[in-house]
Each structure stands twice: as C-alpha cells, then as structure tokens.
Design brief:
By secondary structure, this protein is mainly beta. It is 12% helix and 37% strand. The longest helix is centred in the first third of the chain and has 12 residues. 50% of the residues are buried.
Length: 1025
Amino acid sequence: MNGPNATTRSKRKEPPHSHAIDGRHPKHLRANGDPLSAGVSSGGDNTPETPDDFEAGYDEYDDTRLQALLPGPDTAEWQATIENVVRNVVSIRFCQTCSFDTDPALTSEATGFVVDAERGYILTNRHVVGSGPFWGYCVFDNHEEVDAYPVYRDPVHDFGILKFDQKAIKYMPVAALPLRPDLARVGIEIRVVGNDAGEKLSILSGVISRLDRNAPEYGEGYSDFNTCYYQASAAASGGSSGSPVVNIDGYAVALQAGGRADGASTDYFLPLDRPLRALRCLQEGKPITRGDIQCQFLLKPFDECRRLGLTPEWEAQTRKAFPKETNMLVAEIVLPDGPSHNNIEEGDVLIKVNGELLTQFIRLDDILDSSVGQPVRLLLLRGGEEVEVEIEVGDLHKITPDRFVSVCGGSFHNLSYQQARLYGVACKGVYVCEAGGSFRPDNADNGWLVQSIDHKKTPDLDTFIEVMKTIPDKARVVVTYKHLRDLHTLITTIIYVDRHWAKQMKMAVRNDETGLWDFSNLADALPPVPPVPRTASFIQLEHTSHPAVADLVRSFVHVNCTMPVKLDGFPKNRKWGMGLVIDADKGLVVISRAIVPYDLCDISITIADSIVVEGKVVFLHPLQNYAIIQYDPKLVDAPVLSAKLSTEEITQGASTYFIGYNRIGRIVHAATTVTEIFAVTIPANSGAPRYRAVNVNAITVDTSLSGQCGSGVLVAQDGTVQALWLTYLGERSPSTHRDEEYHLGLATPTMLPVISQIQQGIDPKLRMLSVEFRAIQMSQARLMGVSEDWIQKVSVANTAHHQLFMVTKRTFERKEPEGDALLEGDIIISLNGKLITKISDLDVMYSHEVLDAVIVRDCQELNVKLPTVAADDVETDHAISFCGAVLHRPHHAVRQQISKLFSEVYVSARTRGSPAYQYGLAPTNFITHVNGKATPDLESFLAAVVKIPDNTYFRLRAVTFDSVPWVVTMKKNEHYFPTMEWIKDPKEECGWRRVTYEGGKAIQGEGPDGVMQAGDESTEMEVDA
C-alpha cells in the first residue's frame, strides 16, 4: 500500500452543472462578486459547490502535462486498436436520486464499455452505479443516446453492470470488448479510453507497474476492499471512472477505478476476474453468488508477515509454491458478531483455505463465492502458532441493503457491510441514510444508528417499521441514537413526528429486472392524539434590580419552525428562536421572520420550558421582519404574561435593559445603552433572493450579549418592552458560502397598529410604496436639488439625525398603480404634509391608498399623489414541484431586485440528484415556454408539463435572473420525482393542500411513487435554493 500521506482521487466527473457538456456551459447566473463562478454554479444555487467523497480528490490536468506524460504518437497498430475500442466505449450521465448507504444524492458523469452487445450489458464502476436508486443514460461515440439501468452492482468490489436496449442504437454497429484478466502483466503498455475530465473521448497511455497493491481507500464514502488493484501512470481524471484499460490487441485487461489526488499521475485499476465471473452468470441466467466471512484482509509483504509470526518453514513453502509472489494475506479488520468473530484475530496470517495454500485475493474470492452457506477451513499463523478454524460463509447480498423506508422526512435501511467495515462495527442496526424531517439531529452529519423510538428498541429495519406504525401524527417521542464514529455515546433526543406533510410510510425495494426501485405504502398515518391542557410555572430571573423586568420571563416562549418544502429562496428547512407573547388571552406571539419565513410550515411553541402546543401563522409583515403566530391558550395552564409594548420611540443614548436568549437557548441579561438607530440596509442577495427587511429602523446596543443572542427584548425599568431583539436574515457570503445573519432591535411603536387590528380580530390590510429607501445626508441632498429651506426644516425636525430618504430601488409590480410613481433617485420630502426625517415616518404608507407627497426629482421640487399597492399579494400561496425543482410565482424579494418579470414561473429551489440538477435548471431561472408553448403562469405551466409522457424529453425556454434567454432539454422522471402541486387552502388542517400528478392524472394527496424531498439545509448541500 501507499504510505499514510498517499491520498486518492476518484475518476468520477463532477456534475454537469459544473463543467461544459458538449462544449456548452450551462447558462447559469453568475454568483455575485465571483468572476470565477460562471459555468461553475448557478447564481441561484443556495448550497456551496462542495464535492462529494468521490469528487473530493478530483484535480484537472492541463494539456501540457498530459502531453508530457504520453510516450509519443501511437503506432499504426495502436491506432487500429483504438479505432475498434472507441465504438464500445460510452459516456454515462446519471443521477443517484437519493442518499443511500455511502452514496449521497448526486448528478455526475462517468464511462463504461459494452461487454455483451447481444444482451446490451455495459461494465462500469460500482461507485457509478451506486448502491441506491439510479437513473441515467449512455451516449455512444456517434452521439446516439440510450437509457441504461443497473442489473448488478457488486456489494464490495468497484464494478457494476448496466443494461441498455441494443436495438435502440441504429446508426453504428455495437460490438463487445472482450475481458481478458489473464493478460494483465507488469510492464505492458496500456491505453485508458474514456470520458476524461468532461471530454467526449480521451485516450491516455501508461504502463502497468504493479499487480499487487491493496485497494485504495477513499475516506468515509464507498471503498473497495478484499481485492488487489493494479497500478499504472496514466494521469486520468474526473469522468474516467469505468473506462476500459486495453492492451495493444484491443482486449480489456482492467477497469479504471481511482487514482492519487496529490499531484502524482498514479492510477488504480480493478482486475477483471470478478467482473468476468459476474458477466458470465448474467449471460447464463445464474445467480451471482457472493460469499464473505466479514473479515477484511490486506496484502502484506513477507518481511512484515515475518514480524507478525510467519515462520521460516511456511515462508519457504509459500515462496516455493508461488515464486513470483512477495505478499501474503493478513487479517486487518474482523467485524464483531460476524462469522470470523472469535475465530480470526487482527494480524493473523492466512496460510491455507480448505487445505489449499493461498496468497491471492482472486483465489480467496473464488472459494468464498462458491461456498455460500457452507463451512470453510482456514489455517492461520497467529504469533508463530498455527491456528485452524472452521467458519461458515455468509451471503454477502444479505448484508447489503436493497431496500429502504421513508417516513417523517427521513430514510432508513439496515446498516450495510460497507459502513460496518469502514467503522469496524457489527453489521446490524438501523442506519439513517437521509437525515431529514423529524429525524434530522442537531448535528447534521450522516452516520446515525437509531437505537430506540418511543422507548422501544429498534435493532433492525423490520422492528423499526413496526414501531413507527404505532406512533400517531404530531406525537413527540423519545429517540436514542449513536453515531458510527462514537458507539460509546448514546444520545437521547425528542422528535416531533410529522406524518401529515407525507402521510405514507413508503418502502422502496430494488428491482434488478427493471432497474427501478419499487415503492409501496406500508402504513398511513395514525390520526394525532387531541391535545390536553397542561400546567407549568416559569423560572425566576435572579439578580435583577427591577422586579418588572424579571417578570418578563413569563412573556417568552420557545418557537420551533420546520418547513417541509423550500419556498421563497429561504436557505434553511428548520429554525428556532424565542417569541414574545403580546396577548396571553388570545395566544398571540410575535417573532422574527428569519424564524418563521412563510406559512407552509409546522410551528411548535414551548411555554415555560414545559408545555408544547401547536402554533399557526396569523400575520407576516412584508417589510419589517416580524411575524405574528398564535397558539390555543385553553391548552396552557401557566401564568403567561402579555408583554406591555411601549408607545414611545426609544432614542439613541437611552439606558435600557437587554434580555436575550443565546445560541443554546439560555436567558442572559444586562443593563445597556442604545448606541445607534438607523435605517436597516441589509445587502440584496442576487444569487438567491430571499426575504429581507427594508424601510425600517434598526437598533444597536452597547453590550456583547447582543451579538450572541438572536432573540430578546429591550425593556424599560417598569417592564415595558421598548424594542424586540430579532434575527435578520442577510446575504450569502461569496467566500464562505454561508448565510449571514444580523441581530438588531425593532422598536415596538411601529408594530402597534398591526397588533391592535389582530387583537380585534381584523385581518390587517397593509398598503405600501413599491420602493426601497436609504438615508442621505444634507450634503448629498443639497447637490440633488433640495432647497436650503427644506434643509433648515430637517435640522429642526430631527435634531439627532439630519437626513432625508432617497429611492434606491423600485419593486416591480405586476400591475402598476394609476397615478404618479417614484423613480430611482427621487428624494422624499414629505408625505401627507409630514416631513420625513426618520424611517418610521414612512409608516404612514401602510394605511393610505394615496399619499400627497413632496419630492425632489432631477433638482426640481414636485407635488405628486403617490398610489400605494396592497400587500396582500406578497406571500406565496401556490407552488409546484417538477422534476426535482420547486417553482412558484416570483416572490417579493425577486420583485424587489428585478426590473422585469419574464414569467410567473420562477425556479426557487432544486434537489440534488434530480433531473433539474442534471440538466442545469437552476434557481433564479424563469420558465417562459414548454415545448414551444408559452407558459406565462403556473396554471399554464402545470397544464403543459402534466401532458408530457414519463421518461421522454421536452424543451424548456428559460431566462436567467440577468436576462439571458436559453433553452434546456430535460427528460421527465415521474417515478422518483412526481409532479406535485401545493395549494394554500384554509380548509385543510395544515393550511395547504397537496395534489400529485402521475401518468397525466391528478391524485389528491400523495402518489404511489417517489419520496417527498424534504430539503436539507443549504450548508449540507442537499438542496439548492
């Protein structure tokens, strides 16, 4: 093996959205401020382009380096060989549609080659075929395309076999490349023919230098083991996985699999002995038996074996029998509770199997594969002593998962042999392959094993299913789990069981006849148990000099919000924060819109750290970053206190008391001073427009606690709340790819009119000016035409800040209101006779249809009547999930940043491993046509796409956010990504109704196929938004 510093890279090409396909880069919006991002990721991508395990080591070789590695022009014999070989080589473009075992959901490219032209078999890598659901196609050298599906993926070794319809290839003869593992020799010249670094065809040369290296390790993803690998120098890179390694006679002698990522041009090839056996079994219609004893062996040289106890007698006998061999097989990992447990120990040197002297993996595989269910006798050397054991050979397919169950937004299967071997643990337990929905732990890392649910043990998947069947919707149950990296630590948590957004518990089972995973519904959700009133008391806040301030703890509640579908460009699918009770009798709570961004969500409110009740959205402010939610006060028997909100504006320099909740939910407090009050100016996020506060004042205070707390209040000595302390969602950082958050104060007087109406049972009907303002100083105002008279009046009206407000951006309105309109660069002097020197003075717009305004435009003072627009059309109430993309009308944040709407069909998010991801349909794109037919709105778009037959191509015309039109061809996939419609409906218990479309028919609720894509947080790369 290579030394500890040797790193490996996979040959899988990065997803097509990251590189050119057929010479054309996807037309994605360039990320803001990053000139290198063109063609790398869509400007709307809401997840960083962090490669998966196989892509992590990918490094691209430039042409000059490749030329230096090549030995020179090929001879006529080589040219003739290559000409015959290239007809058999295909480019594989595929999706692994969901996370499964070691493989994340992804879209990528690789290579394969035809090994049986009559039956349509293609050989490629196992890490291409994957262990879970696969959807893809092959492109031949003449650019004919044909669908392909897996008929075999080896449980351990890095090869898989795809099947295609050979009759679909009409314009070229298809021939098979013969497999000749017996022709692999050290020193022979070879060619690697495949899809290298995104090129249509690349031919790389090299010389086999080793036949006896151990399988490379790729980290925490899939890795091959219990086989030898060949080594050569060919400098292949991304996309060449599955390429044939051919000799000068045109025979495939090995399969390209991996290589070094540290700059060395070293490549690793899989021997073809086991792929050839599997192919012959398929050709003869026989099962491909695979045996194993759950022990990993490594090839180790004789000198190391001597240190482990290899005796001179056995070394001499082995060298005599195998004069060219320099290694023996040594036990490296023995899995607990497996067949080898208590029979083989780490460091044992394998001498004989069934009486046969043995030094190679290939022969060991032969014996084990033909002995499934039967005992084998092993002779071992342990510290110089001979040990003979008899072990029953297990069925490798039985410890390789071929099914998974999806429930509550998560997916689960039995722990695989791959994972068990990687961590050296027993091959048993329920593995969380998709940690989403209810089963998303606080640590979003993968690798969890569920130990128990609702105090019932879950040792295997069947038991897990039976336990989950008994748990009603909306229940809160105790779950214990461990992480594969730390099985010493048992973690206990409480989850909220969500069986209403996805009512079915779906089982997916691999079908090697069709290549699909067949879905079935194991159980519908049990109805929720009606809540009952509960009693609780609040904590006492100590060490405060003012009892009224201390009493305010009775006004805070803990709010959890989970979003099953990503809308409006919001980057997360779960948030928590502290809300403030503003009316205990009615159960009204005010909270940041960075916590509750829209109303397609589940809200849990915890009162006094004891009582948990459901909440619902009552009001979402379009501009000021707060939402009002409500719970049923009849369920709460606790001394909840309605916070008293101040009617007077807090001022700069004023003393106040800060009460906040830090990142771990602990209450902290300190006396402090208001340092600044200013118009909030959160940068727009052109890469992924999402809600942001505008036209509202923000407050900062002089305490370090303010930066630690995303929720809280500023309170006077008498307990009156002067401002809310809120989290404001900001822009995505182009350098860290993380979403910025700001912690600022919002003065309470600006909220009082809305709160008053809600308390009276009135639905607030706000109006607003469709513009964004920013403050300007008098020096700038003077240059823009504001008279000295107005400047003097400003200095008198606002002694703290001499400022006016200028229009910096207009919000695009679908229907421009009749009358005058504000333009960029206009300066507001007064509204309805009131001089506008504070951003809060603009609140007059919320209650007037027309405003009498004095403005300065192009150095001229004008008196205009400004119509306001209704704010009741701001929130998203209709969404469509199609081919893994979430589409809805352009939300308010989009209209705030764009000057023209190209369509009412806007791509808000997409799922990794989906057709949308594979073909490059990116967030922030507008869809204008489907198959040449205009789709100006969601209704026409839905009508057009429902008619498209499954698994067929269609054309989309789209326009990027920066006004670049383009056309994308996509293939529809209803099996894994059915078309779904989400419609806001107050009659529904959840407030939203779901319709699924399969085969052109509408199904109320969920369809039979597919798994609801819960949408993981953007930093975990599962969904772009």
